[in-house]
Amino acid sequence: MTTLFEPGRIGSMTLPNRLIRSATAERMADPDGRPRPELKALYSELARGGVGLIITGHLYVHPSGKAHPEMTGIHTDDLMPGLTALADAIHQAGGRIAAQINHGGMQCSRQTVAQTMAPSAIDAPFLRRAARAMTAGEISMVIEAFAQAARRAQEAGFDAVQIHGAHGYLVNQFLSPFTNQRDDAWGGDTDGSDAVPGRRLRSDPGPGGTRLSAVHQARHDGWGRWRAESRRRRRPGGDA
After folding, report:
1. 227 found inside a domain
2. Is residue 239 very low, low, confident or very high in pLDDT (cuts 50, 70, 90)?
């Protein structure tokens, strides 16, 4: 147990201890995505309480990917003062902070996005509404949005970036054959479907990681429900 309270490292980032607060959607932002004072207060309290690394709730990288109301944004330089204040507050309390960046894709709320998009057009029972297929230009735009979000996190003083690649959001949608049925460079085999998250990782500076999900498919169980089905994918001669 004492190891929990010893300093640790993630890449080039040194942590005061091994206690990490995982990302949770706090819903503490104004309509423009600016963090409200209560979000800074929450993070400061966690850091003062001894949490070594705080991973923010998911931050949207582009207006088309705002998953729900009161979601904090990192999609424009106008938000830099508020983001910098968050990082400064955690550092003053002795902690470290990582920005979890995300695009909601087909899971965005009607309250935040007029028309949702996904790797392929999809209309399934588990979705609130149908999503249209992204164009190649939109895919490139979103990749650049992730890169710019990572830049803002770095310039605001964040210690790391985590790309949200789980829970059915856009990165996860590209990894899933259920939602990615493209036959171009962004779909097909694992090389194609992994291309979007791969380019995002290469575009992001500094320490970071990707939160991935083992759930890649859904199937109907015959009783009016859709169930998630785990699927491990391996490259030839490589690890999963």
Report:
1. no
2. very low
Could you give the C-alpha distances from 80 to 89, 100, 106, 111, 237, in angstroms and in order?
14, 15, 27, 24, 44
- Residue 224 pLDDT > 50, yes or no? no
What is the value of pTM for the model shown?
A: 0.82
Task: State how far the alpha carbon of 61 is from the alpha carbons of 117, 119, 179, in Å.
Answer: 15, 17, 21
| Catalytic annotation, residues | 169
Give one DSSP letter per residue of 179-225, joined into a string.
Answer: T----STTSSSHHHHTHHHHHHHHH--SSEEEEE-SEEEEEE-SSS-
Q: Render pLDDT for 83-128 as a digit per residue (tens, 0 to 9).
A: 999 999 999 999 999 999 999 999 999 999 999 999 999 998 888 8
Residue 220: inside a domain, yes or no?
no
- Closest by CA to 22, choosing from 66, 60, 44, 53, is 53
Give residue 165's Cα distance to chain centre: 6
Contacts by residues 123-129 (CB-CB < 8 Å, ≥ 24 positions apart): 124/218, 124/226, 125/226, 126/218, 126/226
| Total domains present in the chain | 1
96 within a domain of the structure (yes/no):
yes
